[in-house]
Every structure is written in structure tokens, then in C-alpha cells.
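pasting for the record
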Amino acid sequence: MKKEVIFLLIACSFSLFSMSQDVSDVWIIKGKDIGSGIIFTPQDYIKKELNYSNLFVTAKENSEVISPISGKVETLDYSYYNTLSYSSTYDIPEINDSLKPLEKDRKIREIIANNQKLTPSRISVLLSIKDEKGRVYRFLGIRPFKFFKTGDKIRKGETIGYVGYSYHSVEAPSIMFSVDYKGKPVDPMGIFGLTTTFLPSSKKIKRPSSYKFSKSELLKDFIVFKNSLEESHPGLYDYISKKELDSVFDSVEKRLKNSMTSHQFKASLMGVLKEIRDSHTNIISKKNPSRKITYPPVLFGVTNDSVIVYATHPDYKQYLNKRIVRIDQKDVKNLIFKIRKLVYGGDGYINTVEKRILLFDFWKYYHFISSEDGTDELSLEFSDGSRQNFTYVQTTLKSYEPNYQHYSANSNFYVSNFKNSTYLLDINTFELTDKDIDSIGRFIKSVNELESSKLIIDVRDNLGGEVNNIERLYSFIATAPFSVTQYQKVNSNTTYQSFKHSLNIPQNHVLFENYRYSGNKNEYILAQDNFPTIKPNTEINFKGDVYLLINEFSQSASTIFPALFFKQKRGVIIGRETGSTYYQMNALKFNRVHLKHTGLELRIPLVKVVFDEDVDKDIPWGRGVIPDYIVSLQYEAFLKETDPIISKALFLIESKNTSFQERGHLTSVLILVLVLCIIFFKKFFVQ
């Protein structure tokens, strides 16, 4: 399947990250001096195209490419760059693994080129290496020395490939080298101590958060917001009618008669997104890097329509579990009503996400609507009549007690062993490396070899990742062949007008030319025969009992795993309803629409992925995967430092074991009684 990968290279978004302390003494071409072979640097023009942040280095074809840093392989993809800011990557087709890397590479490029009508030499490996500080180094134009797996360790000076061709506008064999940090381009020359041509972001006018935009500015941004949604969102009217949404748009537009701050305007747009009910549609503010991150010393949220302090900084433990009645002299009931209108994040008719957000993030939303003057002061009045003023502190949420983030972890996954041959696999993300999946496979295989083993799989607070990783992992427990997608739908198979406001898609670009018109207005379909059917893994396939733990933050692609689990009736599901729907999802490709006056960004999914059109009697349409055993969200459980969902799973396992033992004892007694009856019958009645 073709996947579009988009790199934001807009000049105004550049971020200069100082790398002078990490100057490398290794050049990317083996045996060559640092700086040799450079043909294009940042701010050069390649034909008529401005090169913002890449370094192009030429060398003889098949010269060795080495890594200037140590790190881990993050990606290895086959790519073709349409422009310097937009590329396509392609899944690697199945090829005989016995072939040598360069021969395998040649065949892969020929297959992709034939399918995509491209020149084979201009398709190349894009290898990304991430260092321990989070900087990502990208090498395009590589011919593979070996087919690295994601997660493989790379040492500084290690050979990573051979020189091929990087970009269609560069005639010579070359490597296109770039660096980014947290998604922002970084100087690719500074790492080598070279005099740089890279330009950081230009200085912009910094307005205080209290600055009010004019009616004209707000209206222009709102029109772009509205038109972009109506043109390109594939599920805009799934959970609200066009008439109802038009009414919402009208009411927001009427409020724009007066000037507004960016906060106020964003709050109005958030109210629209709440009505659309799509967790992948977001409105994003540009962060102020100069503003220190601070938190109130007491964290408070909504439970049973009351506001409770559920965690505190260590010096404020006396306020834990106290009920708040007024915040900055405002009645909490009015605040709950106001903030509830802003809270979005769950798909369809799912309400578990809103409940979770109101409980643990109510204090964040209050700060959002009240912090236009930049103050970090808070006044609370409690139900016992006491009042206290608080000053925000610079700290981390990990320092609060109790730590309610039970399910967060630094690792992508971890495993552990409970008693009674019960094992836990906790998957925190599906953004897994090949090494991760290999490790999980070995773990499941080892558990499968044990007698009467049970497996708990935990995908709570897992916000998604790659679908192909889910397919690979589910094949380890699947009982029959399965497919994830029935079909995909978009609104157009030509370009979109909203791309002219896009931060990540070139204007007039065509994304979905292989989608076919369905006969319905604004509906273009990619049919099921474009998606694979996956068979259970023949080498690793767990046969025992499986217990799956889910909650409201099992979202996006992380709803697919429990959906497959539910379809195949693979085991017992415990926890709370997933945050994304069982039947469909808007995702995959996104348009980042820039609202240029207020600086906000609208993130719109462009593809609706339909997983199942047949409504199951146990899951109403528009709902998430619903557990067999529901464990409701209660903040008291966090105060006790317990995990009620895992406790429920262990209870069910223990109950089943006990039930089996009791049935076993009963069977033995019945057999004994039967034997005695036969003996008695023979002795007294058979002559």
C-alpha cells in the first residue's frame, strides 16, 4: 500500500537547535574529508526550487555511506520525492530473502517503479537514525548495505549503505542529508562544524495572549476553517446532520461581531469540533517556547458533578480529596457547564473520553479559559468554608501524589509474570520497532509453550500507531484469517481548494487518484480487494486464554486491536469502552490548515476507514468496543493506588481456575459414586 509522507519545510517554521556541542569528526562518505562533495546547501536553489534545510553530497555511485552519529534506526522506507517538501513512501514488497542486499534492492525498486510509473534509479532507501537526545538524522539516496530493522543500534562510523540517487532534479549520484528535532528542521551543517547557510525562523511579532483580533481577521480565519471542513472532512455529517451543523456554524459566526483573543476564538472553534465528534480533528495553538511550563500545586477534576482535589504536590497533601465549590470566585457548577461545551476527543456517541478528561484535565481547561492575562495564580474555596490562594509551580506531573498516570510507561511495551501461570503483556503504543515486535513474539512463544498459561494483554492509554504493527501482533493470537479494512472513502480524487492554506500539502497536489467514484456525491472509494487478509502466524500463535484490558484512551489505531479481538471472540475484554469507534475512523492522511491571522492550525483527517458496516447487536453504531466486564472510572481507585481493571482480570482468572477445580472434584465424586453403585448392583442383583 502506498503511504504519503509529508515534511513541513516552510521557512517560517524553522527552529535552530544548537548542535555545536556535538560536532562530529566523521563525514557521511567513508574515507572523505568533512565537507567534501557538497553540491547544494540550505538556501540554494535546485533548478527553480528553494532548498530550505537539506545538505546534498555527491560521491561515486556505490561509495560507502557511514553514520556520523550513534543512535537507533527509526525508519527504513523506499521513497520518491515529488518535491523537496513532499514525498511518497512505499511498502517493501515480498522478495526472496536469500538475495544479496543490492540485488534485492534492485528488484524492489523495479517493482515499485513499475507500479508507480517511476524511474527505478530515482527510488531509494530513506534511512532515519535517532540519537539519544531525540534528534533524527535522515539519509535519502541510499542503496542498502543491509536491510536494517527499526530499533537496530547504529554506531558512529558504521557503514549504513552505498551512494545511489537522491532526488530527480539532482543529476549526480548523491545523498540528501537532513536533521530534525521534534519535527522541526535543524542545521545539517553545524553537526560537522561547517560554516552554515541554514536560516533559523525569522523573528515574528509576539502578541500577548490578551491581544484581541479584529472582526475582519476572525471572520477570514473562520471562513477558511468552515470551508476546509466542509470540503475535505469525509465524516463531517456522520454524527450531526448538515442542517444542525450549519446552525452551529451560524451561531459561531454571529459571535464574531466583536473582537476576540486567540483563546476566545479557539474556544469557539472547539465548540464546533465537539459537535462533529471526531477525535482526529483538532484545533491547535502555536506553543510559546519562552513560556515556562507550570502547574497548580493541587490538581482538581469533576466526579459526580462535584469538583474534587485528586492529587497534590507533596507540600500540599492536606488538600487531597477536598471538594471545591468556587474557583476564583466563580461557582464550579457554572464552570463545569462552560468547560463541558469545549471538551472533545471521543468519537461518535462515546462518552467515556469526556468523563476521563473532566476528571483528570478539568484544571487544564480552567487554566485555558482563564489565563489570558498570563497569571499563574489560583484561588479556591472549599466545601468546608475555607479558602486558599495557590501559585503555580514549575515541576512535572510525576511529582504529584498519588500519581494517577498508572498506565504510562517509558518503554513501548513491557512484560511481567503473575501467579498461576498468568502473564502480562502491556503495550503502550503501536508505534513499535521491528525489534519490539520480535521481542513480543518471542515472549508470546515462550508463554505458549507453558502448560495452562493465561495471557493478559493491556492496551489501555495506548493512543495508536501503525496498522501493520497491529496486524502483525494480532496474528500472534488470531484463531482465523482476518482483515482490518472493508474500504476507505475520501471526498475527492482530485485536488482540494483548502490545500492552498495547507502547511503540509502542496497546492493542487492530487492525493487519491486511485480512489473510484461510488455513484454518491463526494464519495470516492478504495475497495476491500486493495487490503490484505492476514493469516494467523504459523510460528507464533498463542492457544491459551487471553484477557484484553481497554479503556477510553485505547484510541485511534489502538481500537483496531480490541475490535479484531471482539470479532473473533478471542477472549474476555475488561475495562471501559474504547475512545474510537468500532465501525469506522477518520485518519491516515491529514491536512494541516493554517489560519494565518490568529496563527491557529486546523488538523483535518482526509480518509474515512471503514472496518465493519454490519451493526453488531452488542455494539450500537457510533460506539467503541464495549468490554464484557465494565470497570467504571472512579477516582477513589487512584487514591488507593490500586489498579481495579487488572484486579478484575486476575479475579476472573482465579474464579475460572477455582471453577475448574470444583468441577474436577465434583467429577471425581460422581465417578466414585457410579463405581460403588455398579459394585452394589453386581453383588446383590447379578447372579
